[in-house]
Amino acid sequence: MVADMEKKNSFVLYTDYRRQFDLLTDAELGQLIRAVMDYVETGQPPDLPAGPQMAFAFISAQIDRDMKKYQEVVEKRRAAGSAGGKQKASNAKQEVASLANDSTCYQAVTNLPDNENDNDNVNDIKKKDTKVSKEKSFQPPSVENVREYCQEGGYKVDAECFVNFYESKGWMVGKNRMKDWKAAVRNWARNDQKPSPKTGNRAIDKYNQFMHSDYDYESLEKDLLANK
User: Fold this and answer.
1) Rounded to an integer, what distance in angstroms lies between the CA atom of residue 119 and that of residue 121?
2) How many Cα atoms sit within 13 Å of 6 on the Cβ side?
3) Of 129, 157, 128, which is closest to residue 141 (Cα–Cα)?
4) Residue 1 pLDDT > 60, yes or no?
5) What is the mean pLDDT of residues 188-206?
6) Are 92 and 178 members of one domain?
7) How confident is the model at residue 109 (pLDDT cuts 50, 70, 90)?
8) Between 152 and 107, where is the model more confident?
9) Rounded CA separation 62/141 (Å)
10) Which terminal CB of the chain, N or C, has fewer other CB atoms within 10 Å?
């Protein structure tokens, strides 16, 4: 994904990565950093051992998101510059036309109230349609959204793991499209089996097994509420 975007000679390493870094030896950490640099420059995923590869998956996903945001900013600025030039030329033409034809100006002023009413009606319809569309559509959260929600609720969930996991599944819960990501966070917190440096390889195996399982979190939450 990085290779398809406009070249950018920098990227961000977040302090949240420290937890994954602590699981690696110094040699593995060196392999990981080199692989991240190569990925930013070439866009090609590396061939790494299991430990560094798992950390690389989190980091590369965040790099892709950062690069996408950067590209969107570049495109918006480019479009704004182009639109600004066109608007100046359009304003100049309109000024010449208004000076050349007073009757046309008078007619435009006379019809202005009707046009304003029509525009108001069209704008009202667009606002209603947009509101309905937003209510029906699910908006995937960002890592920061999940992190803030976990901090507010006291949930011990790795926000980056959560977002990366569901992005890889297209934000599907079982066979259904996710409707409430906050409910999924709460269920993730209940079933979290995240490894730590003290638990060793067995905990990492359990973590990988959990990450690749396909739980229907909405159904689990309904069952829990029904049993209360």
Assistant:
1) 5
2) 9
3) 157
4) no
5) 60
6) no
7) very low
8) 152
9) 13
10) C
Residue 2: pLDDT over 80: no
Helix 26-42 with 50-100: angle, nearest 10 deg:
30
Domain end (from 135, 154, 182):
135
Residue 140 has pLDDT above 70, yes or no: yes
Mean pLDDT throughout 193-207?
A: 51
Give me the chain's average pLDDT, please. Answer: 75
Please give the Cα distance from 110 to 10 (Å, whole number): 57
Max alpha carbon distance in the chain (Å)? 85
User: Containing H/E element for 16?
Assistant: none
d(CA 70, CA 1): 13
Domain count, the chain: 3
Per-residue pLDDT for 184 more than 90? yes
8 plus 89 within the same structural domain? yes
> What is the rounded distance in angstroms from the CA atom of residue 14 to the CA atom of residue 163?
15
Of 56-60, 180-184, 202-206, where does mean pLDDT reach its minimum?
202-206
Closest to 205 measured CA to CA, from 51, 55, 59, 57: 51
For residues 161 and 117, membership in a common domain is answered with: no
- Same domain flag for 157 and 116: no
Q: Are 184 and 173 in contact (CB under 8 A)?
A: yes
Report DSSP state, residue 197.
T
